[in-house]
Amino acid sequence: xxxxxxxxxxxxxxxxxxxxxxxxxxxxxxxxxxxxxxxxxxxxxxxxxxxxxxxxxxxxxxxxxxxxxxxxxxxxxxxxxxxxxxxxxxxxxxxxxxxxxxxxxxxxxxxxxxxxxxxxxxxxxxxxxxxxxxxxxxxxxxxxxxxxxxxxxxxxxxxxxxxxxxxxxxxxxxxxxxxxxxxxxxxxxxxxxxxxxxxxxxxxxxxxxxxxxxxxxxxxxxxxxxxxxxxxxxxxxxxxxxxxxxxxxxxxxxxxxxxxxxxxxxxxxxxxxxxxxxxxxxxxxxxxxxxxxxxxxxxxxxxxxxxxxxxxxxxxxxxxxxxxxxxxxxxxxxxxxxxxxxxxxxxxxxxxxxxxxxxxxxxxxxxxxxxx
Length: 372
What we know:
Blueprint: E1 9-15, H1 21-35, E2 40-45, H2 51-59, E3 63-67, H3 77-85, H4 87-92, E4 95-98, H5 104-112, E5 117-120, H6 125-128, E6 144-147, H7 150-158, E7 164-167, E8 187-192, H8 201-211, E9 218-223, H9 229-238, E10 245-249, H10 256-261, E11 265-267, H11 277-284, E12 289-291, H12 297-300, E13 306-308, H13 314-330, H14 335-345, H15 348-371
Parallel strand pairs: 1-2, 1-4, 2-3, 4-5, 5-6, 6-7, 8-9, 8-11, 9-10, 11-12, 12-13
């Protein structure tokens, strides 16, 4: 797949997925940068899973170069094949922005050539570098690392990162007129994400099962798919919740807004997180979120945006669901004031300016170093 020329800023990704926060964010930021007339491009592998998204980038005038090689992920072969094919573009780009780590030999090779590289973390740094040496050359091949929560900064220093750290959220989704609450009836609770172990959906199901004993009539909508779907459906049946839990499966991008609007609140029971982009999409539609004390959740989930509920205590999590749901029923929050609070906390234009400033300030820094 060919694009337009050699861009100044090239984003480099591993396998593109049809779902996943870092992939959605990368596409959104690329389009926003291009909208500001900044030359950008994308190099990635596994193009087949997100063909429509990549076509949207091309139609926006963004340089896109893909490798469809997917075999041998465990040994880094897709990374190596992609790097070999696109080495000239990697070397000629002014700045390389990574959303996922590639094989360490690639980063080290680019670092030896003096390439400017910035990493935007897809999840918590302590987990990305678990078990690595503090002086890891891969870690310090990046002149800057962008994290989404201030607590992540300490992770990087502990494991030996010596470069510049920037705390900056993913590009916040745009807002539009929020839909009113669903019509009278049971409390409608939603989950939006992949059905994978890290999302800890079995804990959400356990907490949801407690709501009935607390006198709260509710339905749970699971938007998304993944390898744990069969296990979650079995657990739902074991808990006697088959009539109250609906598995909607994978959602197209153009279906997400209406899915969010069908619920009063959303719940995330993750055992680990980085920046949950799905939570930002939900807040942008004026729906509150109940999260767990992981990732960036503790830094922004407070009334009216939602709250943080504990892990390992399904009763307490159920109480958080019940209380947050009552906010919507009793008029303590409404879609408009949730959306307004979201825009104050996650101003899209301000975040966009900070990304541009980050990329621009490093270009100025390089020019000053060359003059010196």
